[in-house]
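STRUCTURE:
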């Protein structure tokens, strides 16, 4: 008996600038971010760095890779402009726990798979190895990408090279470019749906990046303190900035405030411009997909 596919999707957020026009797509950058259970889009006018569109979808009931791809295809097929082929550029940002940051001076393209194999198992039947040279720091992010998804996205935008990047790469670029970034040793965290990303920098130097599965409110504090200890940082003195899907009134935030004196929410990306329509979007949300704009 073949199991029935009951997967579906739900629109969580949609904002579209009143000045958005199909006639200007050749000036617009499209950033598409794909996770196992969610999908986000951002559109940025490259002429003035204005965010023209932002959408967030929850993918529900996903049981197979093909089921997820079917939902993404359905969203794009029913969308008014996403499948248009004349964007300025297209970026596919992937959420994946299979990644490895390599110093640029040590990176050899032919050895990319070997770097990743150190801490990740690559399922070559449906995964491929990609890499992204960071702009803000002297590192290369090697990561796994779903082959079928990449080929399908490329088939939609045949006239453009699809730039495949990793969510962590976007966060690193965004945090270092953002006005909230400070010179002293500090921590920048992005709370995704069940995943905590931690970035630590000192000046323009990247000290740390990793992601952790956070299922309980104590997990957030545990992993931040773990990195604090590793880097010689302190809950009394070090600064922590938070973005993502976490509320000021949440139990997670209350617990973090008890142990971290200088903790605050980050703001919207300072390298982008927003109309009043984006006032309905929390300042600390969607920093990852918006930062994908910086990646080239």
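SEQUENCE:
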């Amino acid at each position: 008996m073949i199991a029935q596919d009951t997967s579906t999707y739900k629109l969580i957020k949609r904002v579209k600038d009143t000045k958005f026009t199909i006639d200007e797509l050749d000036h617009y950058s499209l950033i598409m971010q794909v996770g196992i259970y969610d999908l986000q889009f951002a559109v940025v006018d490259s002429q003035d760095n204005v965010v023209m569109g932002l959408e967030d979808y929850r993918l529900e009931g996903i049981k197979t890779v093909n089921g997820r791809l079917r939902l993404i295809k359905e969203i794009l097929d029913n969308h008014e402009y996403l499948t248009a082929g004349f964007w300025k550029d297209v970026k596919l940002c992937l959420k994946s726990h299979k990644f490895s940051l390599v110093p640029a001076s040590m990176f050899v393209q032919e050895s990319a798979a070997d770097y990743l194999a150190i801490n990740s198992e690559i399922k070559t039947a449906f995964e491929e190895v990609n890499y992204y040279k960071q702009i803000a720091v002297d590192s290369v992010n090697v990561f796994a990408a779903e082959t079928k998804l990449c080929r399908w996205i490329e088939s939609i935008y045949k006239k453009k090279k699809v730039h495949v990047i990793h969510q962590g790469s976007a966060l690193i670029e965004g945090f270092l470019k953002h006005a909230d970034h400070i010179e002293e040793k500090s921590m920048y965290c992005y709370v995704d749906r069940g995943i905590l990303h931690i970035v630590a920098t000192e000046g323009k130097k990247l000290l740390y990046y990793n992601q952790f599965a956070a299922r309980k409110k104590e997990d957030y504090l545990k992993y931040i303190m773990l990195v604090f200890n590793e880097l010689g940082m302190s809950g009394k003195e070090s600064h922590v900035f938070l973005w993502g899907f976490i509320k000021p009134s949440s139990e997670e935030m209350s617990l973090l405030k008890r142990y971290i004196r200088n903790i605050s929410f980050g703001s919207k990306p300072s390298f982008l411009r927003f109309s009043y329509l984006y006032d309905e979007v929390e300042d600390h949300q969607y920093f990852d997909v918006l930062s994908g704009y910086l990646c080239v």
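REMARK: The mean pLDDT is 95.
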